[in-house]
Write a structure and sequence with these properties.
single chain, alpha+beta, outer membrane lipoprotein receptor (LolB), chain A, 39% strand
């Protein structure tokens, strides 16, 4: 979900996110079954089996509505940047990120780009070719949609727990990606509950999700946002 609010999308063109997006774009266009996973040990086999069960569990939901709290810790700042709001994820449409604090702004994120709607209702659009927006969108939709095993082509994956309470640690196995991203950590159960991205320089972005619920239909306002996008 791992990533993602106003601050995240302002940074969408930075080297760390651009590199992560490039790898995720490749992974997200493949189904989990399309990626060959060949564990080297019994422990790796167990990890792969758990990841497959987690992916299947997450993928069973066509849409999710949740609240989020994002905390971004940057070496250049003395205090973390915190924002909160709500999100709607629909696998075949995209994501609506609605930041409520510290200011109100909405982002409608899809394969074609990002539409920003500020508190006054003014709209601006960033196309998919700008800053890897489409790739980041595909990454988040793949992760929230349960397409996790596809990430094996770019990450070493360690898993523990059970499908009811699991943790995943993704470490880049490609040198170019490792120059930008140190790790991705995900936790959850029936839904993704947290996503933490640690950059190679130590900066972190953590997003905690709460109140998650599966949805079968959008509200009229949400449908209008996707339609306008």
């Amino acid at each position: 979900m791992a990533a993602m609010t106003h601050r995240f999308w302002r940074c969408v063109g930075c080297p760390m996110l651009a590199s992560l997006a490039a790898c995720a774009f490749v992974c997200a266009t493949a189904s989990p079954a399309a990626v060959a996973v060949q564990p080297a040990s019994s422990a790796a086999t167990a990890d792969a089996a758990l990841v497959a069960r987690i992916a299947a569990q997450l993928a069973g939901k066509a849409g999710v509505r949740a609240q989020f709290r994002q905390t971004q810790t940057l070496a250049a700042l003395s205090a973390p940047l915190v924002s909160t709001g709500t999100l709607v994820f629909v696998r075949d449409r995209g994501v609506i990120w609605h930041t409520q604090t510290p200011y109100r702004v909405t982002y409608v994120i899809g394969d074609q780009g990002v539409t920003k709607i500020d508190a006054s209702g003014t709209r601006s659009t960033r196309g998919a070719s700008s800053g890897g927006v489409a790739q980041v969108s595909k990454m988040m939709r793949a992760m929230l949609g349960g397409d996790l095993s596809a990430l094996y082509s770019q990450f070493d994956v360690a898993a523990d727990g059970t499908p009811a309470r699991w943790r995943l640690l993704l470490t880049p196995n490609q040198p170019q990606l490792a120059q930008a991203v140190k790790s991705l950590r995900m936790e959850g159960g029936a839904f993704l509950s947290s996503l933490e991205i640690t950059a190679a320089n130590g900066d972190t972005t953590r997003i905690d999700f709460s109140g998650s619920e599966a949805i079968d239909a959008l509200s009229s306002a949400e449908s209008a946002l996707f339609g306008a996008h």
